[in-house]
Amino acid sequence: MSKKFRIMIPCEEANHVCDKTQYKESTLWEKIKLNLHLIYCKVCREYSNNNGKLTKKIKQSKVECLDPNCKKNMKKELDRAIEEQAS
């Protein structure tokens, strides 16, 4: 049987697919294999639940990011400070 049609996947692959699913990058076949894996693997179920909670909290957060210009200026200042320390 070819590798492509395996149904049972190891935990490492299940966690990778779980991460991909979180960002809506997984295929239907990957989701099916992940759900079959989650039926029998308690550890991966916990990982998947924690991923879901994290995603939900991030979406609910009111975090404001710095604008790109501010980040660029901060990087310049940091680089300058590092250069001064090295001298």
Q: Could you explain how this protein is built, in words?
A:
72% of the residues lie in helices and 0% in strands. By secondary structure, it is mainly alpha-helical. It has one domain. It starts with 10 loop residues before the first helix and ends with a helix.
Terminal residue distance = 62 Å
How many structural domains are formed by the residues? 1
Q: Note the total helix count.
A: 4
Shape: elongated
Task: Work out the strand percent.
Answer: under 5%
Q: In percent, how helical is the residue content? A: over 70%
Detail the poorly predicted runs.
Answer: none
Radius of gyration: 21 Å
Strand segment tally: 0
Structural class: mainly alpha
Query: SSE order in H/E notation?
Result: HHHH
Q: What's the average pLDDT?
A: 90
Largest sheet: none
